[in-house]
DNA sequence: CGACCTATCTATAAGCG
DNA sequence: TCGCTTATAGATAGGTC
């Protein structure tokens, strides 16, 4: 899907790997969002970049989907393997989140522990740029209250055609 | 990406919605797999079809990624919301799984509770068709032991360019 | 770096058997 | 209900600023 065909094997160049990760991560989240909208399906995506930074997408939320996934499994009985136990609720619950409508949060976010009041304000300022576009007032409110989001990808705003509740969390690479 | 442009809104026709879900689900898993390979990133995808059937993809496994995601969150301290608690280990642990190399499992699988010995054998037979292609012996072994897989998408086999450990679980729609 | 810019490569919406 | 096929819309590799 680019100027030239490439085979699906690990990208050796560290820099290029990072670029590829960012581009494809965005694409994957976009696809997940479209699928959740078009088919009214619940989807959760969690991933770690080569730099081990966490990213996630969820509709209506990673928690809801993970929880439901678990429930269903209780009905089935396949290879009941008991591993380390952690609360699903914590997966997203304790993670920085942002419920948004018609948009996608991307990049530009430092870890919660690295954020200070001022940085948050800058983030809010950056986000306001996009408010004028086609984002609902509901999103604006949520965005203003959000603690970790930094930038709303304009391209994603333009791509969403209808209101959707989705959750996207990211940490600066 | 088809004969004609369509807007990203809920597909009303139930049948078409199902078709769209299947196609895009396959595409999403393929993208997730490519990303995990190219960037050596850990990724977990869990979703429910409009018919509420569970599907998941994980590299190296949904469990590993979910667990790691949780760990990292412990370091952060953002909106610690306590919700229903379930063990992350159960998410994939109790779900039908299949660790495969260089391939993607698709469709054609009934719930574990609906599977009987004979069906499993048929599945194994179908899978053997693809073994000759370019799948590693490791995959063959895993596939033979697998209890729920039914069909390995040939197209996916052809697309993967290098060994990868990934987990894909599906239930027949 | 991060944001854009397009030539290309893919994913897929419709069709067809 | 299913797969395949094919014309297009969409994603993105490589480059530029």
UniProtKB/TrEMBL annotation, chains A, B:
Cellular component GO terms held in the UniProt record: nucleus
GO molecular function terms noted in the UniProt entry: DNA-binding transcription factor activity, RNA polymerase II-specific; protein dimerization activity; RNA polymerase II cis-regulatory region sequence-specific DNA binding
Protein keywords: DNA-binding, Nucleus, Transcription, Transcription regulation
Classification via CDD domains: MADS_MEF2_like (cd00265)
Principal location: nucleus
InterPro entries for the chain: MEF2-like_N, TF_MADSbox, TF_MADSbox_sf
GO-annotated biological processes: positive regulation of transcription by RNA polymerase II
Record flagged with keyword Magnesium: no
Localization terms from the record: Nucleus
One Pfam family matching this protein: SRF-TF
MADS-box domain: residues covered: 1-61
Designated name of the protein: MADS-box domain-containing protein
């Amino acid at each position: 899907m680019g100027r030239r065909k490439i085979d699906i094997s690990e990208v050796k160049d560290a820099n290029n790997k990072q670029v590829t990760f960012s581009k494809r991560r965005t694409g994957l989240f976009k696809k997940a969002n479209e699928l959740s909208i078009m088919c009214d399906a619940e989807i959760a995506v969690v991933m770690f970049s080569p730099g081990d930074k966490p990213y996630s997408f969820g509709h209506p939320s990673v928690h809801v989907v993970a929880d439901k996934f678990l429930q269903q499994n209780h009905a089935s009985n396949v290879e009941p393997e008991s591993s380390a136990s952690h609360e699903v609720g914590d997966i997203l619950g304790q993670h920085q989140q942002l419920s948004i409508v018609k948009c996608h949060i991307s990049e530009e976010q430092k870890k919660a522990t690295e954020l200070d009041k001022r940085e948050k304000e800058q983030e809010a300022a950056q986000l306001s740029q996009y408010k004028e576009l086609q984002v609902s007032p509901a999103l604006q409110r949520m965005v203003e209250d959000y603690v970790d989001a930094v930038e709303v990808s304009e391209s994603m705003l333009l791509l969403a055609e209808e209101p959707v509740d989705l959750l996207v969390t990211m940490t600066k690479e």
